Amino acid sequence: MTAASDDGFVVFDRVQKSYDGEVLVVKDLNLSIGKGEFLTMLGPSGSGKTTCLMMLAGFETATHGDILLDGQPINNIPPHKRGIGMVFQNYALFPHMTIAENLAFPLEVRKMGKDDREAKVRRALEMVEMGDFGGRRPAQLSGGQQQRVALARALVFEPELVLMDEPLGALDKQLREKMQFEIKHIADNLGITVVYVTHDQTEALTMSDRVAVFEDGRIQQLAPPDELYEAPKNSFVAQFIGENNTLEGVVEEIKDGVALVNLDGGGLIDAKPVNVTKAGERTKVSIRPERVEYNKDRLHADAHTLQAEVMEFIYMGDIFRTRLKVAGNDEFIIKTRNAPDQRRLKPGEMIEIGWLAEDCRALDA
Amino acid sequence: MSDATDTGPVLAADGTPLKRSLARALRAQKMRALALIAPLLIFVLLTFIAPIADMLFRSVENQIVSETLPKTVVALKDWDAKTGEAPPEAVYAALAADLQVAVAAKEHTKVGIRLNYQKTGVSSLFRKSGRQVKKWDLAADAPFKEKFLDVDEDWADVELWQIIQTYSSKYTSGYFLNSVDMELGPDGIRPVDENLAIYNLLFKRTIFMSLAIMGSCVLLGYPIAFLLANLPLRTSNLLMILVLLPFWTSLLVRTSAWKVLLQQQGVINDILVWIGLVADNDRLVMINNQFGTIVAMTHILLPFMILPLYSVMKTIPPTYVRAAKSLGATNWTAFWRVYFPQSVPGIGAGCILVFILAIGYYITPELVGGTDGTFISNRIAYHISRSGNWGLGAALGTILLAAVLILYWVYDKIVGIDNVSLG
Amino acid sequence: MKLKTILLTSGAIAGAAVAFADGHAPMADSMTLVSWGGAYQASQTNAYSDPYKAMHEGLEVVWDESSAEAVAKLRAMNEAGNVTWDLVDVVASDAIRLCDEGLAMEIDADELLAAAPDGTPASEDFGDLLVSDCFIPQIVYSTTAGYRTDLVGDTPPTSICAFFDTEAYPGKRSLEKRPINNMEWALLCDGVAKDDVYDVLETEEGQAQAFAKLDTIKDDVIWWSAGADTPQLLADGEVVMGTTYNGRLFSLIVEQDQPVDMLWDAQVFDLDGWIIPAGLPEERLNRVKDFVKFATDTQRLADQSKYISYGPARASSAPLVAQHATLGIDMAPHMPTDPANATNTFLYNYEWWADYRDDLDAKFQAWLAQ
User: Fold this and answer.
1) Is the pair C, B in contact (3+ CB pairs within 8 Å)?
2) Could you tell me the pTM of the whole model?
3) Are A134 and A98 in contact (CB under 8 A)?
4) What are residue A31's DSSP bridge partners?
5) What is the per-residue pLDDT across B301-355, written as a single tens digit (0 to 9) for each?
6) Which of A84, A203, B129, B250 is 20 to 30 A away from residue C195, measured at CA?
7) Exposure b/e, B359-376, CB count within 10 A at least 16 = b
8) Is the sign of the CA dihedral B364, B365, B366, B367 positive or negative?
9) Closest residue of C to B111, CA-based?
10) CA distances from A127 to B332, C145, C172 (A)
11) How far is CA C265 from CA C163, C186, C303, in A?
C-alpha cells in the first residue's frame, strides 16, 4: 500500500472520479485523516472537494481506487450503513417533521427505544442550545438555528466521523464566525473526526487541524493552517490563501539559500527559492502585504530594494492599506499597523520598499 | 408621537384624519385594481356564473303550469283527490278557458310535455285536446266535463288531476326528488318504482369509478413523475413530451384507439390468443364495461396527475433523501418517510384535478362504457341535448356540483387545502 | 350614348325579371342549413344545394352538422332570442316535439311545396308521411339489421328474432341504446302479433314482458349510440349481427365490400325531413321557402337517391329512382321501400312514442344499469 494509508482513520488511496468518462474531476487522490482530526477541504468551486466528500459519504462511487474507513474499504457499502454523520449546505432539515422528530429520525431507523430516543434528542438539542425548540418546524427557525439543529441531527446518533458540506455558507458574517467557533468547540469536546468542505479560506484557517487545498482535482497542499499561510508550496496556494502580492521574473542566481530574481518590470530582489533550483528559471515571487517594509530604518542594510509609487492610501482603523505601483504591477498592496511611529503615505509619493529574503517565496511560474 | 394618539385621531399633514386619507388612497388603488380585472370579471360572470345560476334556477323552476293554466290551478285548489272523484265542472270550464288561450299561443303542448315527465300520455292528451278546444264556444258550449271526456276519457283520471295539482306551484322540488329516485306523490315524498330507479346507482357508480380512475392515475403517474423529476433535463424533456402527447391527440381518436386495442377481436386479445393465454372462443371482455372505461379515462386523465406531481417533485431537493440516507435510512425508508410526505401536496392537487374532471366526464364513458360503465354525466347530457328535460338535467348537475363541493370541503378538513400545490 | 342607354334598359329589364322570378320578395343572400354530416349531408349537398346555388349566383350556403342536438340547440337559440338556423333536418319525432314546443313553423304543404309533375298536390303526394304540421318529409329510412355472412354458419338469419337466438347464432350483437325499436322487436319475437305490439307495450305487464325478452340476450349485446358504431363493429367482427340505419349498411356492403348481408325483416320505417325554425325574419324566410320548394320537388328527392340508399318521401319520386352516381348500380333494390325488402315492415308510431318516451326511456336506462 501507499504511504497515505498507514494508520489513518479515513484513507483515500489513489482515488479517481470521472462523471462522463472523459474528464477526471478527482485525479489520483491520496489522503489520510487521523482519528479526532478536523480536516478541511478548501478550494474554489469545481476543484473536486465536494466530490471527494460525496464519495466518502457514499453518494458517489469512486471510478478507481479505495476509500477506507477505520481500515475497512467502504466502496461497496451503501450510505446508510456507513454510520457517517453529515451536515448539508442548506441544512436539509425535513420540513414536514418537527425539530424533535428530525433529531429522532436517525435513532428511529436504528430501532432505538422511545425513552432512549427522547433522552438523546433532548441532550443533543441542549448541546446546541436549542432545548426549547423541539416542537417547532424547521421553517419557523432562523438560519442560524436551523444550522444548529442540523449539526445536532448529524451528531445525535454518535457517529465517529462527521462530514460538513459548506454548512455555514448561507449565514451572515457575524453568525458565521460565531458558528465556526461553536462547531470547532463541539467537535473537540466530542472527539469526533470532522471532514469539512468550504471555499472560505478564513473558515478553513480558523477551524482546522489540517487543510487540504484542492485545485483541478488534486490536493495542492495539505498542511496545518499556519504552514499553509506562511509557507505555501506553490503559487496557486499562495494566491488562494490570504492576500498576496505577486511579481514575475527570472532567477539570476541562487546562492546561500537565497535566490536573486530579476523582475520583468525591472529591479532585482531577494527571495527564498521554493520551486526554483537553478539560474535562468522563470518564477513568480510571492510576498504577503504585511511583510513589506518601507521604513528605511527597519530594512536590512544590504537588502535589495525596489522603487514604488504610492497609488492609493486607505485608512482601515487598525491598519493602513496602501496600493503601490511596483515594477510595473500597480496592484501591489502593503499593510501597516496603525502605530504612532508609522508614517501615513500620500498618493504620488515615491518610496523605497524591501523585505526579508525568507518572507519572499520564489514559486513556480 | 404618543401625545397625538392620546389626544385624538392621528392627523395627516393636511389636517384630515389619517384613517380617512389612508382609506381614500386605498380606494383609488382598489378602483384601479378592479378596472384591471374588470374584463375578466365580466367574462367570468357572463360565461360561468350566469349559466350556473341559470342551471340552479331551472332545477326548481316550474312556472309553466300555473302560467299556462292559471284559472284551472285556482279552481283545483279546493278539490280533494282523496275523494277519488274527478273534479267538478268548474274545473273543466276553467281548463277549457285556459286551453283556448294556450292553444292560440301554442303553449298547451309545452305544458303537455312538462306534465308528461310525471305521467305518461299527458303530452298527446294536451295536443289532442287542444285541437278540439280551439273550436269550442266558451259561452255556449257548457258544460265542458262531458266534452272533455268525449275527447279523451283520461280527463276523468283522478291521478292526472292530482299531478296537475301537485305541480301547480311556481317552484318544485320534483326535479331534485327525481334526481335521487324519489317523487312527489299525493301523500308527500315517496321512492319511485324500482324499475325506474337509476340515479342513486349512477351517482354511486360515478363516484366509485372516479375514485378508481384517480387511484390508478396515482399508481401509474407517481413513478413517471418521479422519473421525470430526477432524470437529467434532456431525457426528462423527451419523456415529458411523451407524457403530453395524448394532450395533443383528439379525445375521440384516443378513445377509438382503446377500442381497437381492447375489443374482443382487438390487438390485446389477438396477442393473448396467439401466445395461448386465452382460448379463441373465450376472449376477454375488456371494453364496453367498467374496466374499459377506467382504462381509457386513466389514460386520458394521467397527464393531469403527472404534471402537478412533477412540478411538486421538482422542488424537492435531492439533499433531503441524501440526508435521510446519511442518517441511516434505507432507500425505502428515505423515500417513504422523507420524500413521499413532501410529494403529498402534488398528489393532493393531482387527485383533485383528476377526480373533478372524471366525475363530469361523459364522452369516453358514452363511447366505451357499455351498460355498467356509464356516468351520471351521460344522463345529464342525455336530458340536456336529447330528451329536452332540462329541469331534471339541471337538478342532476346541481347535485353533482354540490357533491364536488362537499368532497372538496371534506378534503380540506382531512388534508388541508393549503396542502395542495400545483408547483 | 345610345349603347349605354340600351345596356341600362336591358339591365333594368333583367333585374325586374329576376325580382319577378323570386316572387317580388326580397331574399337573404345566405342561409344556414342544419344536417347530420357524413354521407347523408353530402347527398343533400349534391342533390339540393349545389343545383340551387348554380341557379342563384352569390348565394352563400352554410352547413351545420348539429341535427343530433337540434331540439336542445334550437331551444337554447330561441331562449337567447337569436335563431341563426334557417332550415333544420330532423327525424320525424324531433319535428313533432319542436312543433309542440312552438320552435318550428307550421306549414301548409300545398302552399309551400311543389305539386307533383302530374299536378297531384303536395299533401297527397307526401300523403301519410306529413306526420306533423311543421314537418316537410324528405326521405324514408329504416332501422334494420345486418349480419356477418362468414359468422352465421350455413343458415343465415331470415328473421329479426335471430337476435334473440343465441344458440343458433352465438356471439355479440349490437342494438341501439334506447327503448325505441328494441321493445317492439322483443315483443314481436315473444309471440305478440304485430298489430298488438303498442297495445301490449302500454301495459306494465307488456313492458315487463319486453324487458324479460331483452334480458335473455342482455349479456350478448353491445349497445350503440352513434349510427357508425354497428358498421364498425361488423367490420371488425366484434358482433355477428347488429342494427343501424339502412344507408350505413348499404355503404358497408356495397361501397366497402364487407362480408355483410342485410336482414330486412321487421325493419322499422322512420322519416327524416326539414323543419323551418319559428320566427324567422322576412327575408330569410323567403329564401328558405324558395329553397324548400325546389329541394323537395319530385325530381330533387329522386336525385338524392343517387347518392344514398334512402327512399324519397314523395310517391311521385319513386319511379324516378335511378342508378348510384358513382357506382352505377341500380338503387331501387337497396331502398327500404323496395317491395322485396318490405315484406315485413314496421312503422314507427310517433304519437305513441311521444307519450311513452320519457317513461320507457327511464325504465330502459334503469334496466340497462342493473
Assistant:
1) yes
2) 0.83
3) yes
4) A12
5) 999 999 999 999 999 999 999 999 999 999 999 999 999 999 998 998 899 999 9
6) B129
7) bbbbebbbbbbbbbbbbb
8) positive
9) C101
10) 31, 87, 77
11) 11, 13, 27
Share of chain C above pLDDT 70, in %: 94
CATH superfamily, domain at B199-419: MetI-like (1.10.3720.10)
| Nearest alpha carbon to residue A359 among A338, A329, A334, A341 | A334
**Subunits with 3+ C-beta pairs closer than 8 A to C:** B
List Cβ neighbours of A221 (8 Å cut-off, separation of 6 or more).
A211, A212, A213, A228, A232, A233, A234, A237
DSSP structural state of residue B198: -
The set of cell numbers assigned to B59 is 332545477
Q: What is the pLDDT of residue A6?
A: 52
pLDDT in tens, A34-84: 999 999 999 998 899 999 999 999 999 999 999 999 999 999 999 999 999
All three cell numbers of C285: 324566410
Please list the residues that pair with B61 across neighbouring strands.
B171
Q: Angle B50-B304-A95 (CA atoms, 0-180°, nearest 5)? A: 105
* B330 and A CB contact within 8 Å: yes
Query: Any idea what DSSP says for residue A191?
Result: T
How far is Cα C164 from Cα C215, in angstroms, rounded to an integer? 10
The span from the CA of C168 to the CA of C154, in Å, is 11
Check: CATH 3.40.190.10 for C23-140+272-320?
yes
Cell numbers standing for residue C294: 325546389
Chains that touch B (3 or more CB pairs under 8 A): A, C
Q: Architecture of domain C144-269+340-369 in CATH?
A: 3-Layer(aba) Sandwich (3.40)
Q: Is the pLDDT of residue C95 over 70?
A: yes
As given in the structure block, the three cell numbers for residue A202 are 478564513
Sheet of strand A218-223: strand arrangement: A84-87, A161-165, A193-198, A38-42, A210-215, A218-223
Mark yes or no for CB contact C369/B198 under 8 Å: yes
End-to-end CA distance of chain A: 34
Smallest CA-to-CA distance from C38 within C271, C308, C268 is with C308
Structural domain boundaries of chain C? Answer: 23-140+272-320, 144-269+340-369
* B322 contacts A109? CB cut-off 8 A: no
